[in-house]
Amino acid sequence: MNPLEWEAPWGVVALGLFVIVMLRANGTYWLGRALGSGAARSARYRRLLESPGYRRVVGWIERWGPPVVSVSFLTVGAQTLVNLAAGVTRMRLRHYLPAVTVGCVLWAVIYSTVGFVGVRAFTALHSRSPVAAWTVLAVAVVALVWFVISRVRGERDEPATDDAPQLSPR
Questions:
Q1: How many CB atoms lie within 10 A of CB 80?
Q2: How far apart are CA 169 and CA 146, in angstroms?
Q3: CA distance 135 to 76
Q4: Taking the mean position of all CA atoms in its chain, how far away is CA 150?
Q5: pTM of structure
Q6: How far apart are CA 37 and CA 32, in angstroms?
Q7: Following DSSP, what letter does each residue of 16-79 receive, concatenated?
Q8: What does the angle CA 152 – CA 156 – CA 161 come to, to the nearest 5 degrees?
Q9: Contact of 66 with 72, CB cutoff 8 Å
């Protein structure tokens, strides 16, 4: 069911997207809580919990708390790790629920406005010139891949610090 094809007022579409992302984010949080106690005993999940990306997210949560959850919804690809880390670290629900609600509202509003505009712009360009549409998309993908690779390489080159968060099963 593609939200771009919903024949409903914007508010209904935004509310539907909010419900979808709220269920997904909270499901990830509760999965993190369930995995938290047994993850250190599982080689598969221990690798995830020891990965640089996960450790970085735990550091953010330990340093900044619930606002990290809200802000993660403004990024691409960070929401899942942040919600999982919030669950594994057992962020209190009185802190997590308001933060995830704010993040889900932000995500639903952005996706139901800018997200729709982007897809519609691509579709309109594609109807006029498929070559131009795919060229613009390819350039955007290459730029995103370059950005991610440069960030990953930059983090690998940084010296390790002693203030990295310590993972301990709870």
A1: 15
A2: 36
A3: 22
A4: 19
A5: 0.64
A6: 9
A7: HHHHHHHHHHHHHHHHHHHHHHHGGG-HHHHHHHHSHHHHHHHHHHHHH-HHHHHHHTTSSS-H
A8: 125
A9: no
Residue with tokens 């498929």: 130
Q: Measured between alpha carbons, how far apart are the two ends of the chain, in Å?
A: 39
pLDDT at 112: 84
- Separation in Å, CA 105 to CA 39, 98, 101: 31, 11, 6
pLDDT digits (tens, 9 = 90+) for 75-134: 877 888 899 889 988 889 999 999 999 999 999 998 888 777 777 788 888 999 999 989
Q: What is the three-class DSSP state of 168? A: coil
The conformation of residue 112, written as its DSSP 8-state character, comes to I
Q: How far apart are CA 139 and CA 167, in angstroms?
A: 39
Residue whose structure tokens are 């070559």:
131
